[in-house]
Amino acid sequence: MRLLRVVLTCAGLVGLATPLSEGAGATSLSCAQSRVAAWNGPELAKEVVSVSVNGEDLASARAAALRGFGAITLFGSTGSGHLLSTLHQLSSLNPRRVQPLVVSDEEGGGVLRLTNLVGTWPWAKVMGSTMTASEIRDVGRRVGRRLRNLGITGDLAPVADLDPSSVVPGVENADGLRSFSGSAAVASRDVAAFVTGVREAGEWAVVKHFPGLGGVSPNTDVGPARTRPWSTLTTSLLPFRAGVASGGLVMMSNATVPGLTTGPATMSAAASAALRSRLNYVGPIVSDALDAKSVSAAGWALGAASAQAIRAGEDLLIDGTPGIGVHSPVSSAEIMAAGIVAALHDGTVSLSALRRAASLDLSLSPTCAP
User: Fold this and answer.
1) Is residue 368 part of a domain?
2) pLDDT tens string 176-229
3) Which of 319, 265, 268, 269 is nearest to 291 (CA)?
4) Number of domains observed in the structure of the chain
């Protein structure tokens, strides 16, 4: 803990408000709670599901809003020149006149979704080894401003996992160049800097993948994976603490955590409880891709996995890369929402838990955010 405070003090970040803690955050949450109070189960289920679309696929973005989904995740490598005007229309298309959350996955290096609109910048590992915290903060601020100018709400970055290697991410290692460092001190400093820059631009940043994928093999997208034992992950939590202290949101990992979970952390109430208690985190918990092979290998089809994720304490549910599966983006999201509604009907998901998740998600939307 003393190391973490040194890192945050050097970056000038101690004392920054965490999401929804006080002031504007509490006002946003109150607005969201008021809005969702009268919504029925299917409406709440759609609010917690993000539809994965390609940045050039504006038809699917409009369809997601028309169907009442609460969020859109942009994938691909480039974005349509009409993205801004389309995103500004979404609240008028939504049946409840809610502006969906729109997030992109802009990490740097080889993980960039809207290169023609947002630009390019180095891998996290390159930034961590060649840039100061101030320079990384400037990168985050620049990225955040460009996203905000496009009508996008947040960035599914940075990666807070500890990984000393510099391999290109792939089947055997999901991190490598995506990680700032194998050093907790360096990664904590740089995660905090990037998150702070994005937040200063008025955007949300999401640190991932709790409680840390460093050293996991293989990639959870392609099969089951395990972290190191929970009892040994104290140091790995430091970059996540730094990100949360800087106002970041948190994405849960799809890996099993020996000693904490018996399956993917996204499916585990114990993992969500650990995040809340160990990091004093009060914001929405974002799932990793629920169509990941690590999830299906554990016996969870997409609809059932969505219900279990809500039951476990997740709040915003992300599908995987669009076009990979057999379903269209909106039909995949419909399967996710239907799984949650079925769980409401059989009593395995409570309406109060679903309403709480929907409130946390909506509090981040321009509909309620100041």
Assistant:
1) no
2) 999 999 999 999 999 999 999 999 999 999 999 999 998 777 899 999 999 999
3) 319
4) 1
